[in-house]
Amino acid sequence: MSEGVQRTGRWFGLAGAALVAVGVGLLARVPALVLLGGLGVTLGAYDRLAVPPAADVTVRRSLAPTEPSLGERVTVALTVRNDGDRTIPDLRIADGVPDTVRVVEGSASLGTALRPGAETTMTYEIAGGTDRCTFEPATVVVRDVVGVVARRARVAVEPDAVTWERPAGSALLPLVPAVARRPGAVPVDEGGEGVSFYAVREHRSNDPLSRVDWNRYARTGDLSTVEFRREQSATVVVVVDARAAAAVAPRPDAETAVERSTAAAVALVEGLPEDGHAVGVAAYSSQRAWLDPGTTEAHRRRARDLLRTDRAFAATPDGREPDARRLLARLPKAANVVFLSPLCDDDAEAFARRLAAGGHPVTVVSPDPTTTDTAGHRLARLERTERLRRLRAAGLAVHDWGPDEALRRVTERAWRDDR
Amino acid sequence: MTTRTGLVCGGAAGLAGVVTLLVAGVGTAATAAGVAAVVVLGGGVLARSGRLVDLAGAVLFLEVLVAALQGASATTVLVGGGGTVLAWTFGHAAVDLRDDLGTGPSVTVESAHVAGTTALVGVAVAVTALLFRVDVPRIPPLALASVVLGAIALTAALRR
Fold first, then answer.
1. What percent of chain B has pLDDT over 70?
2. For residue A116, which of A78, A141, A85 has the smallest C-alpha distance?
3. Complex ipTM, two decimals?
4. pTM, 2 dp
5. 123-152 in B: which are within 8 Å (CB) of A?
6. How far apart are CA B16 and CA B14, in angstroms?
């Protein structure tokens, strides 16, 4: 615990007022004003002599749940106890909430008065953490009853960290067919090796016997070869719209679209490689963040770390525009792009169109941050709906993600629609 | 979550300001100053402006000075002075608490502050008034002023 005592200056000027009262009283021959000066002197003496109570307190913190999953709220209870033998008439405590989380319910600070041995607890909820978040020491300020002098202390409190675990489940989206590369799970409009029927063609001498259509041979005597729909692995880049304009939420305590998009990106980074896809990560933000596509476990870890810690995904307003041209130039040729954006402005729609125009199969997953409580909000919802419609009409796969909908429901719907 | 942080102190500041206005408002000028002070005090607390609270305290003090010059009794002046200090202190406390705690709960600390400060200032006013009434040989006003000025110099030298 580190401590420091300082005078607050709350009664600064009291001695000057007393002097004025005495001076005017003398000049005007009014004893009552000289007496008023005496009152000022008495209170001024208190101002000079007061000492703050000792910050003899213990602080405990409890977290629930102790191992939250990504996106889950954590309830923090901070209990402060007066271990001294004097009443603390003015005790203010502020918990050292990590910079990377938000207080969504309650307040992380408290003012109270505590008798010896008494304790009080404040409770608040935090959200938005994506990894291990460490609390700073709590700041405790104790003052005398008037508040003319304060003692400030920093108190380390255990437990001092909370770790949001990786998402409960990974997510897998049906991807838009692209050019053939490696055998895998994305169906392409091309015959070859696979499991589902594609076409029957004339037999060639080097065709494997297993693919000869023997039924037709028995019926007609002609040799023909069955072709199956080829399936391939894709190169996928998950692009998160992390501009400040995308950091919008339906309620003040709700997750922003950027936070939902980042959580979905983490889930996709977990899920897509399980189907053999190479996944990369990028931020559509004024700050650059890029990870080349890859499939290994180490690569997935790097992608998760990037999404959870890079400032590019923090939606910091800095007045700069994202460098869309640079991002487009960096995308591998014909790479599938999963664009996570609330589509709340025309810029996001234009970027999605530029992705598609660049020859990239584009899947848009759009967390919906709109509400209908005011006319302006209803208009914003209509505009967003229209953007989604226009992108669908342009051939992009667009999945609308409702405010209280789980990502799993969106992916299930996407797979159902894909069939 | 409470959004009433500073409400108790702000209310106490307004009450102390009104009491000072009523006690020291012995003439038109004093009453006008008191009304202006209470309005500024309310604005300062609502706008969380320490400067406005200081201004309100200064105008309340001016009201007490004017009342004394218009012939108010020593008790009236002392009670008005105590009310001025309370209004000024509570106003600052309301602003400080909002700044320090945001919307955090604070009713307990505010109640303790109001009670403790009122007791301290009340005792100071009572002791000063009693001293004035002690039947000691008449002290010339200049001598009394010299004692007070000496006390001011002494307190200014304390802990510095």
1. 90
2. A85
3. 0.86
4. 0.61
5. 124-125, 127-129, 131-132, 141-142, 144-145, 148-149, 151-152
6. 6
